[in-house]
Amino acid sequence: MRKKVTVVGAGNVGANTALRIAEKELADVVLVDIIEGVPQGKGLDLLQSGPVQGYDVHIAGANDYEATANSDIVVITAGLARKPGMSRDDLLMANYEIVKSATEQSVKYSPNSILILVTNPLDAMCWVAHKVSGFNRNRVIGMAGILDTARFRTFIAMELKVAVESITALVLGGHGDTMVPLVRFTNVSGIPLTELLPQETIDKLVQRTRDGGAEIVKYLKTGSAYYAPSAAAVEMVESILRDKKKVLPCAACLQGEYGIDGLFVGVPVKLGAMGLEQIYELKLTAQEKAMLDKSAAAVKELVEILKTKMT
């Protein structure tokens, strides 16, 4: 039996997610979008790329969720994108309705699926999907830390003029301005970053990582990042479908870990066939813990707003 992945949202993030899944031949793909003709057209276009690119999976588009039945994973990318000057938090109420509906429909047709959230504000949308689905925490996971860590690694590689593969890094916390790049856990082939760069430069790289999404929005003017976010989402899909047990920074529902309860926050997790299979609790310094608490507080603020909406 071939695996099946539904991608909700046939925009730039969704379409690129579908393409990357197909190119890796991870699963058959169903693209869902409310705009008539868009998922069908993009699905057919992706399907016709197969003979050239050498992949052989089925890709279909739909405006309803019937075609998504029995999906192993549902990747929710649907939502409004940020515009210049708009914070992720501005998107909160608009994307709440979209994610709520997408979750309800996905769960109706694929009650045994694992949900991967990409829609912003990411951590709050994970909370919505978790509440609406009724799934336990191992089946609702957010894509954020992989993307933020990739940005941090990219900027370090650019600064040091070294291969990005040589860089190990870790970014925790909420997906936004309060994210926590952990410099102490960052190295270049085992060499601590602090031995290679002055603190002033490291601080600039940390800030550029926090502003990574906004920097791209500023350039694009009419949209937000999609190549790197889709790559990050597909790394999660691959680790789950192939039971690779990769340890990756993802938004997970914490139940006392790091002193945080009932919130989705970016932490290192193991992803395998069961979804989120383990959360790794690092021993943080007082400063790191304070930054993580601040990040969690920002997530909690949004969740409190959502709670009033859902009652």
What is the structure about, briefly put?
The chain has 311 residues and is an alpha/beta fold. It has nine helices and 14 strands.
Task: Describe the protein.
- With 311 residues, this protein is of the alpha/beta class.
- The protein has a domain at 4-142: Rossmann fold, CATH 3.40.50.720.
- It contains 9 helices and 14 strands.
- The strands form 4 sheets. Strands 3-2-1-4-5-6 form a 6-stranded parallel sheet, sandwiched between helices. A 3-stranded antiparallel sheet has the order 7-10-11, covered by helices on one side. Strands 12-13-14 form a 3-stranded antiparallel sheet.
- A hairpin with a 5-residue loop joins strand 12 (246-255) and strand 13.
- The protein starts with a strand and ends with a helix.
SSE order and pairing:
Layout (H helix, E strand, L loop, with lengths): L3 E5 L3 H12 L4 E5 L5 H16 L5 E4 L10 E4 L15 H18 L4 E4 L4 H12 L6 E3 L2 H16 L6 E2 L2 E2 L7 E2 L5 E2 L2 E2 L6 H12 L1 H9 L6 H15 L4 E10 L5 E12 L2 E5 L6 H25 L1
Parallel strand pairs: 1-2, 1-4, 2-3, 4-5, 5-6
Antiparallel strand pairs: 7-10, 8-9, 10-11, 12-13, 13-14
Helix pairs in contact: 1-2, 1-8, 3-4, 4-9, 5-6
